[in-house]
UniProtKB/TrEMBL annotation:
GO process terms (BP): methylation
Gene that this polypeptide is encoded by: fliB
EC number: 2.1.1.-
Protein name: Flagellin lysine-N-methylase
Enzyme class name: transferase
Keywords of the record: Cell projection, Cilium, Flagellum, Methyltransferase, Transferase
Molecular function GO labels: methyltransferase activity
Length: 370
């Protein structure tokens, strides 16, 4: 088995009671079967508390005021951890904010942007992200796993990450090039010509696509405020989210240019692309995965721009981090929202290939002139 982690993986340290947004509230914490069986056997007063704090039908912890886990105390610490130790916690709580994507004989382990400490680590990183791997003797076979497609997706993602971290060009231009590559790769997947993907990657690596000249001739919207409408179709997790989105949508209509550092945008799109792109091995929709990464970055940019327009001043780094982990929570802590966004990548005019390419081209032109 091969394990892959980003180079900042070991930098994570839980903020515990000092966290500005505890991970023990706002979403249902699903309990794994082994932990449920263990909770049934705990004796004494604490055992009674455990059994009275679990929704056994839904296999989740009960939630109280403001969707706080039944074990989250007033100091924002976990009573289960305090009373019984970390080994008593369920798999979700032990692993978070670690996010694991599973493939045949591969485990890709990332840190979730939804955690404030992780969002800070990612956005403050100035160097390009590199991945580190380790292997052990474990082997597993997954019925029906398309290893040929998976290898092509891995190779494609590697080229995309190199593009995104090539700082000779504005970040929106890099994103546009990744979008174009995803579009070409998807056409080969759809036609069953996966063997041609290697040739496509070679062309992009050599720069033969002349995308820079092409994009300079494209016309599009400088801002992407129309993408905020996608959020209206999502399940709402944070009680303040819906009201804030309404304000952001209104403020995003201003001509305020925004002051988001190039590095922040790069780290954001790299995070989402690395986390989700190879999942296309299960549904064959590589273009939707690339769009999700790009659209998530554009939406976050719009939230920052709208917040600056509302406040009338440049956002601090901490404020940009907060918008990053709030957006991530609404998207990544909800399977319905992840599924809905993938549907939106394929069905909404705002996320069509020409529309997104136009937005990125216009933004790249602004980036050049700033």
């Amino acid at each position: 088995m091969r394990y892959t982690v980003p180079d900042y993986y070991k930098k994570f340290q839980c903020l515990a009671g000092f966290c500005p947004a505890t991970c023990c509230a706002g979403w249902q914490i699903v309990i794994d079967p082994k932990s449920l069986a263990r909770y049934h056997k705990v004796k004494g007063r604490f055992g009674n508390r455990i059994r009275n704090s679990v929704n056994w039908k839904e296999e989740t912890f009960l939630q109280y005021e403001k969707k706080r886990c039944a074990f989250l105390n007033e100091e924002n610490l976990c009573d289960m951890h305090i009373e019984a130790g970390p080994e008593m916690m369920c798999a979700t709580c032990r692993k978070y904010p670690r996010h694991i994507e599973e493939f045949e004989n591969e485990r890709e382990i990332t840190l979730s942007m939804s955690c404030p400490a992780v969002a800070k680590i990612i956005l403050e990183k100035q160097e390009p992200v590199t991945m580190r791997t380790a292997e052990d003797d474990r082997q597993e076979e997954e019925a029906g796993f398309d290893f040929f497609l998976y290898s092509a997706l891995q190779d494609t993602r590697e080229v995309m990450l190199n593009m995104l971290q090539n700082r000779k060009y504005p970040v929106h231009l890099r994103m546009a090039e990744v979008l174009a590559l995803a579009h070409d790769v998807q056409s080969r997947i759809r036609s069953g010509q996966i063997f041609e993907i290697e040739t496509i990657l070679t062309r992009y690596e050599k720069g033969e696509m002349a995308l820079i000249r092409k994009l300079c001739a494209e016309k599009g919207r400088v801002h992407a405020e129309e993408l905020l409408c996608l959020l209206d179709e999502w399940e709402v997790l944070d009680e303040h989210w819906k009201k804030d989105v309404a304000v952001w949508k209104q403020c995003a209509q201003s001509l305020h240019p925004g002051n988001i550092p190039e590095n922040d945008k790069e780290q954001m799109v790299v995070y989402y692309l690395y986390t989700y792109f190879c999942g296309a091995v299960y549904d064959g929709d590589a273009l939707a995965k690339a769009k999700m990464a790009i659209v998530s970055t554009l939406i976050w940019e719009e939230l920052c721009r709208a917040e600056e327009a509302q406040k009338g001043e440049i956002l601090s780094f901490e404020e940009r981090v907060e918008l990053a982990y709030r957006y991530s929570r609404e998207l990544e802590h909800s399977d319905p929202n992840l599924n809905q966004m993938e549907v939106q990548m394929n069905t909404r005019e705002e996320t069509s290939f020409p529309r997104l390419l136009g937005i990125l081209a216009a933004r790249a032109e602004v980036d050049r002139n700033e």
